[in-house]
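Re: zinc ion structure - here you go.
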Amino acid sequence: MTEHQALAVTQIFCNLGSLAYASCSDQYNSSMRIALTKTFGFEAAHFLPCFPEGHKCRRMHGHSFKIDVVVEGEVDEAKGYLIDFAEVKAATKPVEDALDHRVLNEIEGLENPTAELLSKWVWDRLAPSLPLLACVRVHETCTSSAEYRGE
Ligand SMILES: [Zn+2]
């Protein structure tokens, strides 16, 4: 390939590129509601003092918790997105730090750290900085989760 041909090929790709990347405002032109989920995880121990005598959950044990933080709202027409995932992550980081590698029962407000009460505890800490917050889902194991929607 000569230098001239190489230049022509380059120009073709540049033109294709400009066709492929439409301007931001051309993405769509009608209102659109969306839910986004950002997931964070932490390791923690707990025991559940309100379970019946002899129940295994009364013993101290640990989980690799996963928490889904769901935000919901109208997609910004000009931008084509609802919220930067990094904003959600920034809001969740202090909560993650407060829970990671702790005994949950020792944290104020989590003396009875069931998945149900933990989902509300997380909600209460995220809601002030995440106005679009729609749901907090706490996964205690791969098959068990609790979902709180602020009601
Ligand atoms: Zn447990």
